[in-house]
Write a structure and sequence with these properties.
single chain; 5-stranded mixed barrel; 23% helix; globular
Length: 129
């Protein structure tokens, strides 16, 4: 009887934790069927869990500068793929392609990042759903 009583809290904790993790990693906010590609200047690479972020200034067709934000995988995942905090520096010219956010302009989920020399850095995200 004691073992059974201990199992219930463990199952509840597991279910709540799994639900929170699933909700966090559910990429419903991004449109995986669309692709956006922007060229601009890196303003910041945020190297922090649970996801790294690229911020970049992009000059729009109207000449106005828009600061785009692109979500990346976790820093640990990026390090396993050869990235470091110094892979990109503010001021670097980059091109980012990825899935745009469904409800937020100038936000996306990066699939690829290419530097000014044409060297691609693959983020490892191929599909967001």
């Amino acid at each position: 009887m004691k073992i059974r009583a201990m199992r219930f809290p463990a199952v509840v904790i597991l279910a709540v934790t799994a639900t929170a993790a699933f909700a966090h990693h559910s990429q419903a906010e991004f449109d995986s069927k669309s692709t956006v590609e922007v060229n601009g200047t890196l303003t910041e690479l945020v190297w922090k869990s649970p996801h790294a972020w690229i911020y970049m200034n992009v000059v729009g067709e109207d000449g106005e500068v828009v600061n785009w934000s692109f979500e990346l995988p976790s820093p640990t995942t990026l390090m396993r793929r050869g990235w470091s905090r110094k892979s990109l520096e503010p001021g670097d010219a980059i091109t980012v392609a990825g899935a745009p956010a469904r409800n937020h302009p100038a936000v996306g989920l990066a699939r690829t990042v290419t530097d000014a020399d044409g060297n691609g850095v693959f983020t490892g995200i191929t599909d967001v759903n």
